Amino acid sequence: MDINKRNRTELKQFFEQGDQPTEQQFGELIDAGMNQAEDGIAKIQGNPLAIQAEGESIGTQEVLDLFTSFNDDNPQWSLNLNPRVDIQEPSSSQSGLNIKDATGQSRLFIRSGQGNVGIGTLDPVSKVTIEGKNNPSLLSVIDTSQERTKILEVTKKEGVTIKGALQVDGDFMANNISSNVTLGSEGASDTRIATQKAVKTYIDTRLPKGLISMWSGKDIPSGWALCNGKDNTPDLSGKFIVGFDKDTNDYNEIGKTGGLEEVRLTEAELPPHTHTDKGHVHSITDPGHNHINSSFNRLVRQTGNDTHKGTDGRNDPGKEFDLRNSAEIKESKTGIKIISGKSNLEKTGGDQPHENRPPYYVLAYIMKL
What we know:
It is built from three helices and 20 strands. The longest helix is centred in the middle third of the chain and has 11 residues, at about 195-205. The radius of gyration is 67 Å and the shape is rod-shaped. Among the domains are: about 35-130, no CATH class; about 135-165, no CATH class; about 170-205, no CATH class; about 300-330, no CATH class. It has a six-stranded mixed beta sheet with strand order 3-4-5-6-7-8, with no helix packed on it. By secondary structure, the protein is mainly β. It is about 5% helix and about 20% strand. The mean pLDDT is about 80.
């Protein structure tokens, strides 16, 4: 930057003892100082330093240039008012304070009235708007309480990265939230979040109301009820379940019940069987007998006629025998018939019911409400 002003040493030489400064030298002395009326900078007693912007009100007004060295052609940083979004278009002027760098790019802009802050933009659309082109990171929040830790970062490639917990009070909105009740079954994604309603609908359609399941826990899960006859549930306490069968009378209607824990068998329900009885035999040996002996072998009868005693020396008178009509004495059996028989079997058993259940393990039946 060309200042084109004399420095203090040069100006002092005009006023050395015995010299008579010229009009030009007095002019250079005056021009070397700041003039509050002409130079746009003033300091009124009791007020801060005031700087007046350069430029027309309808365009950008320059306020302050910051140089690393006045030998540089352009300032490193500049402050201006009402910068233009499009330099060639006066109507694009934005009312506010702007800080730009050596390239002329806006780095920080505060809009008048709304107070919106633009970082990298002259047109902030929200309280804070950040713009960047090919920037690896647009926003970082770093905690230095113990060590430098990046707890939040916003990048074009990764989006928003948060180190630690994210707490949201109120509704959470995102473009990757899906209300698809099938949960994208044909093309499930690792980057989409299902809504609460979508998840509930999905579960309800996979586990429909009225579904009965076995449960091993002590506490019934939410949305389910114990099948004890309450809450419109069937009473399955201590029950086995049999499958529906439209062709079987006992099983052709939902809700039919039957069966017994213990049963007594009737005679008709007994399987075919036999009672073996070997019985016993009464044996009598009959060798037979006859009416003969070693001296006599015939039978005779009395005639009724008298005989003279002494004829045979044995019989009394009137005891005559008919010898012509005697008969031979033969051996003969008694004719005894022996019949064997079996015992008369009596009924037995206590007529008590018997266990009718297979081995069991107890679980609870619960129903989806």
